[in-house]
Design goal:
CATH superfamily of the largest domain: Vaccinia Virus protein VP39
Number of strands: 9
Order of helices and strands: EHEHEHEHEHEHHEEEHHHHH
Mean pLDDT: 91
CATH class of the largest domain: Alpha Beta
Number of helices: 12
Structural class: alpha/beta
Number of domains: 2
Shape: elongated
Largest sheet: 7 strands, mixed
Helix content: 25-40%
Oligomer: single chain
Length: 280
């Protein structure tokens, strides 16, 4: 069955990579694994051999039919739909161990950020995930403060739990080969908002403001968000941060401390609208 470029289909054909992905999920003997984008079923076979059950989310109706024909329905359930509309909470209630699911997936490159945001929003239903994405995205997701890849995507993902880069793959590992390298990372879901004393929506809005223009200082970005220079200088001083600090140099703990100080000092304007959630 040929790949459909409009769906971003690049099928993994590297047996060693398939085994590494399945092994990276840990013990699956009593778990239901949700696989996003199973395609022709290369990773699905490895998951079905290890897991109690596999729940495959496949948008391509032709591939969904093929998967149903190739696997025992007692081992695999195929859901033909867009992952962005999938109800992870309901699936965890029905299939999850202690209300949690394990996730694996080869994410289409053109909708990676929306899928990551969907998983973040569904974090209460997820335990861990091993995901394959474009290498540059994986490097940004797992980046640490001060590195060139650290930014809005890094903070957003890591606020929902630690992310670890596992390995990279060349285009030749796929059929058809993509034009870029890919990478696999593991994401353990453990949201940090309560731990850091920040409210989820307001903190993520604040982080978007801090990273609005990466080359600008934190002070300039916050001023562009509508705060006064005097207020910003006072907050930065109280947070014990450098006056000319840039958001890319600040840890998640630094950003949370600054956000708490801002909230203590003044409430955000009631008519303020959050910037668009563009992680790219």
């Amino acid at each position: 069955m040929p790949a459909k470029p409009k769906l971003g289909q690049n099928f993994l054909n590297d047996p060693q990579a398939i085994e590494r992905i399945a092994n990276a999920l840990g013990d699956l003997s009593e778990r239901t694994v949700v696989e996003v984008g199973p395609g022709r079923g290369a990773i699905t076979h490895a998951l079905a051999a290890r897991a109690a059950h596999v729940l495959a989310i496949e948008l391509d109706a032709d591939l969904a039919i093929r998967l149903r024909a190739d696997f025992d329905p007692a081992r695999l359930t195929v859901v033909c739909r867009d992952v962005l509309t999938f109800d992870f909470a309901a699936a965890a209630e029905e299939y999850g161990l202690a209300g949690k699911l394990v996730l694996a997936g080869n994410l289409p490159y053109f909708i990676t950020s929306p899928i990551l945001l969907k998983l973040a929003a569904s974090s209460a239903a997820l335990d861990r995930a091993v995901l394959m994405v474009q290498r540059e995205v994986a490097e940004r997701v797992t980046a640490q403060p001060g590195s060139r890849d650290y930014g809005l995507l890094s903070v957003t993902v890591q606020m929902y739990g630690p992310a670890q880069l596992l390995f990279t793959l060349p285009p030749s590992a796929f059929t058809p080969p993509p034009e870029v390298h890919s990478a696999v990372f593991r994401w353990r879901f453990a949201p940090r908002f309560a731990e850091l004393g920040v409210e989820e929506a307001s903190f993520l809005r604040f982080v978007r403001q801090c990273f609005a223009q990466k080359r600008k200082t934190l002070s300039n970005n916050l001023r562009a968000a509508g705060f006064s220079q005097d207020e910003i200088a006072a907050w930065i001083k109280r947070a014990k941060l450098p006056a000319q600090a840039r958001a890319e140099a600040l840890s998640i703990e630094d950003l949370a401390r600054l956000a708490r100080i801002l909230q203590e000092d003044r409430a955000a304007p009631q008519d303020e609208t959050a910037p668009a959630a563009d992680l790219d």
